[in-house]
Write a structure and sequence with these properties.
Blueprint lengths: L7 E9 L4 H12 L3 E8 L5 E9 L2 H13 L3 E7 L4 E12 L3 H13 L3 E6 L2 E8 L1 H11 L4 E6 L3 E4 L6
Antiparallel strand pairs: 1-3, 1-4, 2-3, 5-7, 5-8, 5-9, 6-7
Length: 168
């Protein structure tokens, strides 16, 4: 789970959607000694432009350095520190759970429905579940499933954007 501690920042960046950009951004953090807690990258609303969501720790001075350095990269179009209270954050989790009996399957399906997840695959001894939400919701869901035996787990980490009509 990515906990939003006081010195944790959500940085959103619009970048050219082409090979090598992620490597250059990650390299910048490495060279400066900044730790990336999480990074997600995907298409934006504009063709050829990707949105990066970077979760990083540091005080305001560190955040200012990160922002300035990101803005210097040629492939970076825009950078913004997102205010946690004014931000919508979500992540995706897929989890394969041991479920050989009908009663276990039934209980897992009930938990999945309560957490508004979906069963995306079924096999004779396992269910694969997809759930989205904030990190705390996903952590709570996984805690319930641990008793059944988690066979595989994949989490995207948070992606974020500003609430309301404000855009990058």
């Amino acid at each position: 789970m990515i906990e939003m501690e006081p010195d944790t920042h959500i940085i959103s960046a619009l970048v050219e959607h082409k090979p090598g950009v992620l490597q250059r951004v990650a390299g910048l953090f490495t060279r400066r000694g900044f730790n990336i807690e999480n990074i997600t990258v995907g298409e934006s609303e504009t063709p050829g432009i990707a949105r990066m969501t970077i979760i990083a720790r540091g005080d305001d001075r560190v955040l200012e350095q990160i922002t300035k350095q990101l803005n210097k990269l040629i492939d970076v179009i825009k950078v913004r520190d997102l205010e946690p209270a004014a931000t919508v954050k979500r992540e995706l989790c897929m989890v394969k759970v041991h479920a050989p009996s009908e009663s276990e399957r039934s209980e897992i399906i009930q938990y999945t429905n309560i957490f508004r997840g979906r069963i995306v695959d079924v096999s004779p001894d396992a269910l694969t579940v997809e759930v989205t939400g904030d990190s705390e919701k996903i952590d709570a869901f996984l805690e319930l499933l641990r008793n059944f035996g988690i066979k595989e787990l994949a989490r995207t980490g948070p992606t974020a954007m500003s609430r309301g009509s404000r855009t990058m």
